[in-house]
Amino acid sequence: xxxxxxxxxxxxxxxxxxxxxxxxxxxxxxxxxxxxxxxxxxxxxxxxxxxxxxxxxxxxxxxxxxxxxxxxxxxxxxxxxxxxxxxxxxxxxxxxxxxxxxxxxxxxxxxxxxxxxxxxxxxxxxxxxxxxxxxxxxxxxxxxxxxxxxxxxxxxxxxxxxxxxxxxxxxxxxxxxxxxxxxxxxxxxxxxxxxxxxxxxxxxxxxxxxxxxxxxxxxxxxxxxxxxxxxxxxxxxxxxxxxxxxxxxxxxxxxxxxxxxxxxxxxxxxxxxxxxxxxxxxxxxxxxxxxxxxxxxxxxxxxxxxxxx
Length: 309
What we know:
The structure is a single chain. The chain has 309 residues and is mostly helical. Helix content is 76%, strand content 0%. Helix 1 runs antiparallel to helix 11 (274-302) and helix 6 (148-162) packs across helix 9 (218-255). The longest helix has 38 residues, at 218-255.
């Protein structure tokens, strides 16, 4: 690794940390600016009891002091504090428990989307304007146009309620099939179209025509040159794809009752559980920023001609 590449990576890490700090700051102050509070939903709570709860969770102190204390706890101890609504449980424990399922769900869905999208896109490009290409384009257009919560509800109605071949909840391994399919369909369709477009462009380049004129085997042209160079736009999309899967899983997990981080996040918003909202937001932001950082660095691995600046 040369000095230029190392400096680029360090710069991107610095920007990633800055982005996470901005997310933390905006979320913290916007959340506190919304009228109401986390204890207003408590039944028949007195002013004294509310004041005691505010003091217990350190919310009776000046807002900026709360912010500084929160940042210090995150940086020094990676501590998000206790959950307000899930009494007796720390936010980091709730997130860690849910993230095990959510991470497995997201990784499998991303893998399915990436492999299926690249294969279908390459096949469609090689079958340009033929029947298989047209069928793939029609199906992927439909999947791209349909939001994940609509697709999830449709799959739930067909395979769980009507046919009864798959469970309606994601508490078992078999029950995770529908959520995985739901999360992977949109990115798979997008990657298919992206790969097809990129591969058609590469197949029209001069060096591909030269290789064919020299009698290079078709398989080597396709897999050794065309497919490899057409993957650069796909890698560009990997970071946003993982972000869309992570954010989309929040709703999908709720639809299929998957015991992941999505359910905890949605419940924390409705219950005004400030520490849980902050913790899940930070974890999701770190995941998204990290994956974007990885995808940026992978440009250089796939195409050494790219200059990292």
